Structure formats: C-alpha cells, structure tokens
Amino acid sequence: MRTFLSILVVLTFAIRLPAEDTNVPTPPKTNASAPMKIGTGEADKYYDKEMIVTGKVAQVTIRPTVTFLNLDKPFPNSPFTVVIFHGHSSFYGDVNALRGKSIEIRGKIKNYNDKPEIALDNTNQLTVFDSRGMIITSSILQSTNVPAVHQSTNAPPPSTQSTNFPEIM
Predict the structure, then answer these.
(1) Among 67, 77, 116, 148, which one is least packed by beta carbons within 10 Å?
(2) Which residue has the higher pLDDT, 155 or 3?
(3) Secondary structure (H, E, C), 33-51
C-alpha cells in the first residue's frame, strides 16, 4: 500500500509540472497563415488559394504587354505559368535570365483556360535559385542588360526577341 501511495504522489507532481520543466522539447510554433509550398503539378488543386509554387523556368515568352514564364515544360504542355503584365509589376530585370532557373512564386493561384497561373505583381513574390539551390534573386532582378519588363504599357519591349511560343494574343 505504501508503494502504491508513493507512486500516486510522484505521478500527481509529474502531471502538474509545466512542459518547460520536464526537459521535453516543445515543437516549434508554426505560422498557420504561411502559404504551403507545392510543385507545379499540384497547382491545379489549389485554385484561389495563396500558395508557393516551385518549378524550373522552361520557357520565357515576351509579348508587347505581357511576359509568360512557363514552368517545367514549354507551352502548351506547361503545368503552370507565371504571368508578368508590363506596367503592373515591379519586376524590372532581364526576364530571359530566368530561363533554366529553379524558382518559387508566391501568390494566389488563378484558373486561366483550365491552367493554373500566378500573376507577378511584386518582386517579393519571386525567389530564384542557382543550380546549387542558393538564392540568386537579387542579382537577376538588378540585371539591366535587357529590361524586358518596363513601366510603359503602350510601348513594346526595347528589343525584339524571337521565341518558340505560338502567337496566342
């Protein structure tokens, strides 16, 4: 009986100890509002949701008023597209430098012609990685060799560039 009483007393105190006193690590607090990171193939399951989509820029297509970054595969087989409307974006770097780069794009996934896309409105939405996985966004965005995206919405890009993208506009 005495042993049972001793165990009961020990358990009572152990139950009342706060978690920080038991030397048991507590799981890190997570930000429930942080967007989930997904690949391009999953994006069509998350329309109208704020997400981070990862992929490799397979094709860059520049038109007079818009630029398309097709991820993982070129048009029309691309599972995901990043859209940059000229004059409505703070992206002012050499967009062609993104070709072949792995990127993350953050934003609300929209359904356009049954394909998922995110419109780039701010450079904070875009993270660019080199082949080693190191972030190189700032060097891409500050490049001024060919400013493919500029503030004027009426003027064409400064240089005419050929692409293999079929004319869709």
Answers:
(1) 77
(2) 3
(3) CCCEEEEHHHHHHCCCCEE
**Two structure tokens written together for 40:** 């391009």
Answering whether pTM is above 0.85, one says no
SS3 track for the chain: CHHHHHHHHHHHHHHHCCHHHHCCCCCCCCCCCCCEEEEHHHHHHCCCCEEEEEEEEEEEEECCCEEEEEECCCCCCCCEEEEEECCCCCCCCCHHHHCCCEEEEEEECEEECCEEEEECCCHHHEEEECCCCCECHHHHHCCCCCCCCCCCCCCCCCCCCCCCCCCCC
Q: Higher confidence at residue 148 or residue 67?
A: 67
> Would you list the domain boundaries of the chain?
36-141
Q: Are 104 and 133 in contact (CB under 8 A)?
A: no
Q: What is the pLDDT of residue 160?
A: 40
When pLDDT is averaged across residues 3-20 and rounded to a whole number, the result is 54
Q: What is the pLDDT of residues 69-108, one digit of tens each?
A: 999 999 999 999 999 998 877 666 788 999 999 999 999 9
* 45, 37 Cβ separation under 8 angstroms: no
The CATH class of the 36-141 domain is mainly beta
Contact predicate 64/157, CB 8 Å: yes
pLDDT (mean) for 28-51: 87
